[in-house]
Amino acid sequence: MKLNPAVKSFISAFVILLVLFIVTGISLYVIPGANSNWAWPLASILVLGSDSGGMIIAITIFLLIIGGAIHILKETGLIEGVISATVLKFKDKSFLLMALLVLLFMSMGAFVGVFEEVVPLVPLMILLSKRMGWDDLTGLGISILACGLGFAAAVSNPFTIGVAQQLADLPMFSGALLRMGVFATVYTVLLAFLWTRSKHIKGTVLEEDDLSDLLKTHVPQNAYVFFVALMVGMAIFITASPFVSFLRDISLPVIALVFLIAGLGVGMMANGSLRWVFKTYLKGAVDMSPAIVLILLATGIKHLMVEGALLEIILEAMAENSTNYGAFTSILIVFVSVLGLNFFIGSGSAKAFILMPVVVPMMDMIGVSRQLGVLAFQFGDGFSNVLYPTNAVLLIALGISGVGYGKWLKFILPIQVILLILSVAWLWLGYQIGYGG
Description:
It is found in: Cell membrane. Keywords: Cell membrane, Membrane, Transmembrane, Transmembrane helix. This protein has 21 helices and no strands. The protein has helices at residues 5-30, 43-46, 53-76, 78-90, 94-112, 122-131, 136-152, 158-167, 176-198, 208-215, 221-240, 245-249, 251-270, 274-288, 290-307, 310-322, 327-341, 348-366, 370-382, 392-401, 405-432. Helix 8 packs parallel to helix 18 and helix 17 runs parallel beside helix 19. The chain is globular, with a radius of gyration of 22 Å. The chain starts with a helix and ends in a 5-residue tail after the last helix. The relative contact order is 0.16.
């Protein structure tokens, strides 16, 4: 029996996370000083009672609401209509479209700190990608990958740069000129990677007549106006939220509410049957529910690291070893240490609170600017978000697209190698010019 791509994607991600969960649990009995005296097999449940439990529950509800709303928008034909109109406009300007989309999604990550909020847009970008003659991986590349790399090549990301600089007692968003150079470099590399790859994809671009036919759906014009108005309002909210603490705290609920209103409103305008809208919404929510299992497993691994004292052991080793090497080697130790911890703890702001109290005295001790320490933290925290199978946002995006983790890994490894080299090169340049000194 041939499995649905989404089911295959879920199974592959589940198996990988389960193995990692078990290995982490066993390591509690192997690593000296680790705490094995608690019910570690229940970590994925116990995490709901931890400090991050509220956020996990909020993300779960967010996904269920988004899943139902997106399914309504797809079933009414509205998303198909919006995508077809876009393809008609850029049918002969495919490079321009890709360049603009990559810039848009990277900017959301780099300047605003958006990442998980992009999940609802992934299905749209995949559909757009296929209509342009590309493939599902390209759709993921111009959306979740671009946003994730922008999050790492941050210029004013409040959740990584902002928090880390505050903890390092540096002016908020200082040192931005060099980070703009990082952003431009990563943007160029990603666009070249996606565009070069797209030239080898033998997809089919729909003819203009076919696209025009797709536009002739039973969705009334006022439904399109209603949907676009809501999306513009949401974009303004997302842009403002990182810089207004109150808005930042309610960002996920507001985005979920906007999509819920959009889904229900468009459903009623296009179909008129409340029963149909409810059944369609429920189907979308149920289809999204496997992602909850993956989130619990991924966050359970982080819970094991914290409660089992593995994180404390790693931080102590990091601090001790840094004094035995030269200044630039110590900077690389910070970079590699954050890169490793990102496998277990995806949240950039959480890692900043954990790591910066260790990084700051290290930088002072070896005579390197704290700004360079923040840059090492930034690189270690971000680029691997779209690589590690423990990142819940990545798993959800892959689940929505039906792309298995193995296929994604093969796709992304080349650019990850380039980004690793670029990270070391930018850190070396920063060290040589006395960045932040």
